[in-house]
Amino acid sequence: MRVPYALLERAVTAHFQGLGLSAEHARSMAAVLLEAELEGNLGHGLTRIPQYTAQLRAGGLNPRPTLRLEQVRPALQVLKADGAPGPVAGLYAVEALLPLVRHQGVAALAVQGAGHAGALSAYVGRLAGSGLVGLAFANTPPAIAPGPVLGTNPIALGAPAEPHPVVVDTSVSVVARGKIIAAAKRGEAIPLGWAVDREGQPATDPQAALEGSLVPIGEGKGYALAVLVEVLAGVLAGAVLSPDLPLPWASPEAAAKPGLLLVGLEPTAFPGYAERMARLLKALQAAGGRIPGWRRVASRERALQEGVPVGEALLEELARSGLHLKGGKA
């Protein structure tokens, strides 16, 4: 069924308020999760609500966190998140980073002690929408072959452009683990090349893939990128390493608190930025290239007009978590 966005937003916000979050923080959860859903990033959308719900109910996440911002250097901040859900801490961090970047020209903010942040596009996209170039790095529970020791460790960029910002959001594995979790919930096979099982053999069974390891993009190069993100988000910013993070299906009271590093730059400090960006996009389009982030905009606009498609299995899973959408009522 297709659910009108306004109804979905009210329902998700009310659901998280019912779990103890403030109205503001519940709106943050709805904003990040629904943005991913509307943009077609289903592994980080509605399907994540049962996980957040269980973690909040079990005490793995704090519904009433005290967010504490520390100014450690003129252009560096650390957000002590006090067990906040990741989207709550992530949007708070963006709002804190914006004035610092505008004042300093470049600044970084490390988030420590928050849950899974969801799609990093939510954060770099907001920075780009405010006229700044944004970067985001996050480490995640171990998933990448060999090992696994390293996580899928996503990296994201948001950059102002016309008519829409350029937004790149990708994990260093062939696919994000969320896509495999979503396939497992639907009972669907996954393509060869996404993952290997415990014995290192190519896997098409999503459950075997989740018990094994995900394949890095570009083999050794993808592994090196995972190390790069681990150093930035784990060693430097997060104070926690991927191998020390509980897996997504661990008991909900043991919710992972990965690291998140946000970096912002003021593009007007570099004369000619807008003109060079326009030339780049024109050249990419002339060569038949797609502009990262623009397809998300089209998907979002269609969902806002036609409603958000929600499958029967997901409706039932959400209902078991206390979020009822059937019948057009929230």
UniProtKB/TrEMBL annotation:
EC number assigned by the record: 1.1.1.338
Keywords: Oxidoreductase
Enzyme class: oxidoreductase
Oxidoreductase is among the record's keywords: yes
Keyword set includes Oxidoreductase: yes
InterPro entries xrefs: Mal/L-sulf/L-lact_DH-like_ah (IPR043144), Mal/L-sulf/L-lact_DH-like_NADP (IPR043143), Mal/L-sulfo/L-lacto_DH-like_sf (IPR036111), Malate/L-lactate_DH-like (IPR003767)
Gene3D superfamilies listed in its UniProt record: 1.10.1530.10, Hypothetical oxidoreductase yiak, domain 2 (3.30.1370.60)
GO molecular function, one term: oxidoreductase activity
Sequence similarity: Belongs to the LDH2/MDH2 oxidoreductase family.
Protein name as it appears in the record: (2R)-3-sulfolactate dehydrogenase (NADP(+))
Species whose genome carries this gene: Meiothermus luteus
